[in-house]
């Protein structure tokens, strides 16, 4: 029993010593420059067909203004009415909230 306790204490002390000695303060600091990143841009998406016949003349997807007011949001507060009784189509005692 004494040998096991001694080994456990020795192992714990060695672990604490190794953790304390392994400090990251001596590690070299690497500085990352975002401007050094190289971006690869592919011009051809390869849709498999020419999109020009389907677009208006002088179409430019990058010009124009964007407004948040132009987005139509769905109001979640409106309750959906099915206009018919669903109880005839469900089993007796059906509760969708019970798993």
From TrEMBL:
Signal peptide positions on this chain: 1-20
Q: Which domain of life is it from?
A: Bacteria
UniProtKB keywords: Signal
- Name of the protein described by the UniProt record: Uncharacterized protein
């Amino acid at each position: 029993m004494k040998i096991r306790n001694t080994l456990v204490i020795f192992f714990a002390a060695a672990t604490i010593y190794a953790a304390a000695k392994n400090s990251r303060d001596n590690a070299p600091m690497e500085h990352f420059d975002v401007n050094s990143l190289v971006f690869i841009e592919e011009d051809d998406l390869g849709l498999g067909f020419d999109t020009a016949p389907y677009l208006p003349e002088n179409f430019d997807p990058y010009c124009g203004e964007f407004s948040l007011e132009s987005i139509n949001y769905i109001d979640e507060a409106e309750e959906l009415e099915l206009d018919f009784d669903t109880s005839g189509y469900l089993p007796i005692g059906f509760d969708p909230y019970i798993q």
